[in-house]
Outer membrane protein beta-barrel domain-containing protein (Carboxylicivirga marina), 215 residues
Amino acid sequence: MRFFILLLLLCSLSGISNAQDYFIGGKVGYSFPTNIGNPDKENGFAKYANNGWQIAFFGKWFYNKSLSLGTDLGYQYQGPGDKWDVGNYGEFKNASYQTIRLLLNGTYYLSQNDIRPYIGVSFGAYYLINTIDFNATQNYQSIEYTAKVWKPGLAPQLGLLFELSKKTMLDIHLQMDIIANMEAIYHPDAEPDYTENPHEKQNQISIGIGLLFGL
């Protein structure tokens, strides 16, 4: 935690002293849940959640044209996947997967031209809100819960940065969010008993596009 705070302070101080190198903006993205990291592919996250939209505010401080540090505050919503289509076994009411992310980012640009391909990595915290409400009518398990939890995560990136003008940049990137320590939790004492987050790992891939404006 002290390391995160130190990085944020360094970014803030650097932005004040070199304001022309600091850019802020917003972006939208589209995410694809994956079964990466799940030993049981039939019960992975891609089976339980649909593709979803995300929005984010982000900023970059350019140490030079090859290196930048940044922040990312984002929100994502995903609806229910194919696993919840259980025919006549019960009444499906709701399922949703919401994510709030707070990330720090480091990026290396492979070119110093107006179009700069880059590789980067973000790390930080993900706040997950998983809601399930399914009422069984036959020999099937009823499930109703909202699981809220903070998890650490890592997000490598590949992207392109387009310098549209001295004060405007277009950012397009592919990102994979790897969320640590996601496990299924069985609640035997609940009525009825249920398994929270049966998909376990909650990793995903997303495509994002954003605009950055210089201060």
Remarks:
- The CA atoms of residues 135 and 142 lie 5 Å apart.
- Helices lie at 2-17, 45-48.
- Residues 3-10, 12-19 have pLDDT under 50 and may be disordered.
